[in-house]
Specification:
Layout: H1 2-17, H2 25-55, H3 61-94
Helix pairs in contact: 2-3
């Protein structure tokens, strides 16, 4: 399932990069919220991997790196939510 989510995110990224594809501000806000949810899920997954690695005896650089990635992904997810909120506010002001 993680592979499918990754492929879908890559396909969406390609679509967003294409200047010929029209987008609305509302659509961009929804995309940012979806990215935020995806990244938060990735953070939770990395946290689970960290715990699994530790339980399997891989304490040290490997589990440490997984832990750091989990924290970074969580931060990115929160920043994506803040961006989506800012887009929503800008859209409401423009209306």
């Amino acid at each position: 399932m993680a592979w499918q989510v990754g492929e879908a995110a890559a396909a969406l990224g390609d679509r967003l990069r294409d200047p010929a594809v029209p987008h609305s501000v509302e659509e961009i806000e929804q995309v940012m919220r979806g990215f935020s949810l995806t990244v938060e899920g990735m953070a939770a997954g990395c946290g689970g991997v960290t715990e699994w690695l530790r339980a399997a005896g891989h304490v040290g650089p490997l589990s440490g790196h997984a832990s750091v990635m989990s924290e970074r992904l969580s931060h990115i997810g929160k920043e994506l939510t803040r961006l989506a909120d800012a887009i929503e506010k800008a859209q409401k002001r423009a209306s």
